[in-house]
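Because showing beats explaining, we think one record worth quoting, sequence and backbone structure tokens together, and here it is:
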Amino acid sequence: MTGRSAAVVGALALTVLAIPTLAIGARAGALAEPTHSSPSTMAFGVAPLALIENRRLLSYPLDQVWPAAIRYLRIDRGFEITDRDQDAGYILFQFPLEGQRIGSGSLEMFATDDAAGRASVSMSVNTGAGPVHLPNSILDGISAKVRAERGQPSPPPPPPNQEEPPPKQDDPQDDHSVPLMPPSEDP
């Protein structure tokens, strides 16, 4: 993939994007040499920028997760929500960094079904700055908030009607009682 590469580290997926940067010093307009050279970044004279991303699947319907996510980001974390669209499934937010800097992030959500067949939400948090644990911390917080407000997820739906196979009949005389052990013998 030209200009992009992905690496999974534990539960944290790091997506590296190449963006052009200007060199300071040498000559005006020159592109900076990348710190981690690869054929794709060397060819285009760009330096990589890490975009930290984490994904999670919650076994709750989207209409229950969306408002909890908004409240968590705005009220519990104190982040500024800059844009949101429930139909498109995204929330853009800003958060304070060290000093006077501001970081930005996004939370993407879409409805799906989990492995048990329950209505669920797939969530992805991306941050371009801040601590490496921040996306996972946000997903943990949203998960805990939904669980605290809604309780445990609903049980999975029953499987489609399936006829039970008739029981095996080994011996027509069997009355399905527990077999008796023979009396013990003294040696």
